Amino acid sequence: MTRSLKKGIFVDEGLLKKIAGKNPLQTPMIKTWKRASVIAPEMLGFNFGVYNGKTHVEVLVTEDMVGHRLGEFSPTKKFIKHGGKMQKELEQKKKEAEILQAKSATAAASEAGASKK
To answer: Is 0.70 surpassed by the pTM of this model?
Structure first.
């Protein structure tokens, strides 16, 4: 659900105080727990350490990020592959097929090179 226009965007005042009057290139990573804070144009070039529940993920703010929230760039969940044994077998067959295809391509290239001589 979006925030009401009459309320305006939420930019954490504490973050703005931390970056006020500082040079983005000389400032070290600024740690924050405010994932809901919207990225303002004043934050361009700064490195923020956005907390994801376990660690601080380093986020370098660029022009494309303005208007988005800090939490969007610090995922809280780690995807682990599905499948187990069946998935491993399928991946192994796929690898073998790729290896055979590569070998046949190199053999065809070497035959073409030999026939030109």
So the answer is: no
| Domain count within the chain | 2
Number of neighbours of residue 36 by Cβ within 10 angstroms? 12
Q: Using 50, 70 and 90 to split pLDDT, how confident is the model at 28? A: very high
CA distances from 4 to 1, 8, 9, 66, 73 (A): 9, 7, 8, 18, 23
8 A C-beta contact, residue 57 and residue 74: yes
Of 12, 3, 1, whose CA–CA distance to 34 is shortest? Answer: 12
Question: Which residue do the tokens 């030999």 mark?
Answer: 114
| Angstrom distance (rounded) from CA 117 to CA 112 | 9
| Domain assignment of residue 31, yes or no | yes
